Amino acid sequence: MGSVSRGLFEKARLVIPGGVNSPVRAFKAVGGDPPFFARGQGALLTDVDGNEYIDYVCSWGPLILGHAHPEIVREVQEAAKSGTSFGAPNPHEVELARLVVESVPGIEKVRMVNSGTEATLSALRLARACTGRDLIVKMDGCYHGHVDALLVKAGSGVATLGLPGTPGVPARVAEQTLVVPYNDLDAFASLAKARGREIACAIVEPVAANMGVVPPRPGYLEGLREITAKHGILLIFDEVITGFRLALGGAQELYRITPDLTTLGKILGGGLPIGAYGGREEIMDRVAPEGDVYQAGTLAGNPLAMRAGIAMLKGLRAPGVYAALEKSSARLAQGLAAAAEESGTPARVTRVGSLLTLFFTSHDPVDWQSASRSDTRRFAAYFRRMLERGIYLAPSQYEALFVSLSHTDEQIERTIATAREVLKGMRWGPEA
């Protein structure tokens, strides 16, 4: 890290907890201090010390068109000229809602909010109101924002009452969350059979992307849909990461599974703060003022975010967009896997569309238990060496690598070559 970034981090720690506004940014999992970024253009980031990086974080997914995309910049600038917030209806929220409804199979009506966490919180409340039940089910290792009820971890056994994953979450709140392993359909079926009449909803990342990228096993999502329908449990797909990234209609389009409710964020705002939740009309009509389930937000439908989102979705509707993403992502995944093999590195590359992870493990990750056996110490060493050579990856083994439409063939090849150099040069004994 350069001297300017270092100085900023020291100042930040005096006024911001840990010096960052989101924990992973502090580099605790990989060591060292984080660079502070000054600007982004296309697939490149430049820090305040003038160092340039090929960016595979892409603001944790939303910059699928790249940094400072001309159409998004233009829309935000024009929107700001007319006012940054009204706290009242504006025409752009109608247009973005229409595009979402047209794009996402499981959404007939949608409510805009300001973050993925807010979307998830609202969807849980709505599910409980519609079913008259209190319990929710989440999958171990899936992250759905910092909602109290979802900040829990699994205990031993197939399905356990949730335990608070952080101080500040009351045990009585966590006890309403049941946890089963991701990709374990039998565990979920057993739980639904035993307690289905108490369960309001099951929430899942259709492609797990917060334990690293872990694809669903064949039949897993289909089984969730069948079991939840049988027991009157609402199925919620958290598509904050997968929405609009794996296909225009998200993972539910890719896998042809329609949930009852969907939560969205990130890409929907083209890089501006946004979230949304939507579903079948009869469910969404329970939301106030149409119905009795209260949810509100002064900045919801913000005109800057709405216009950026419209530009984003229109850009993703262009011919060949997802084919181009698939080509670049496949090339990168294949190159990283080959680099690991050539160096004798025990590693697995998992990928769905433009989401991928290089796991430092000799076993295929299928759930949190198997993913968590990855060698995080080796990942940290790899991360630091890649950063030194101008490749910016997510600072955690358990995050996704995001490919954007702005990544060029040359940048992909440079990344592969850098990974090959780094992996060959690393020592994999006890002192690595």
CATH superfamily of the largest domain: Type I PLP-dependent aspartate aminotransferase-like (Major domain)
Query: What is the name of the CATH architecture of the largest domain?
Result: 3-Layer(aba) Sandwich
Terminus-to-terminus distance: 21 Å
Q: List unreliable stretches of 5+ residues.
A: 154-162
Quaternary structure type: single chain
List the helices and strands and how they pair.
Blueprint: H1 3-15, E1 37-41, E2 44-47, E3 52-55, H2 70-81, H3 91-103, E4 109-113, H4 116-131, E5 135-140, E6 152-153, E7 160-161, E8 163-164, H5 171-174, E9 177-181, H6 185-195, E10 199-204, H7 220-230, E11 234-238, H8 250-255, E12 261-265, E13 275-279, H9 281-284, H10 303-316, H11 321-343, E14 348-352, E15 355-359, H12 368-371, H13 376-388, E16 391-392, E17 401-402, H14 409-425
Parallel strand pairs: 3-16, 5-9, 5-10, 10-11, 11-12
Antiparallel strand pairs: 1-2, 2-3, 4-13, 6-8, 7-9, 12-13, 14-15, 15-17
Helix pairs in contact: 2-10, 3-10, 6-7, 11-14
Could you provide a short overview of the structure?
This protein has 432 residues and is of the alpha/beta class. It is built from 14 helices and 17 strands.
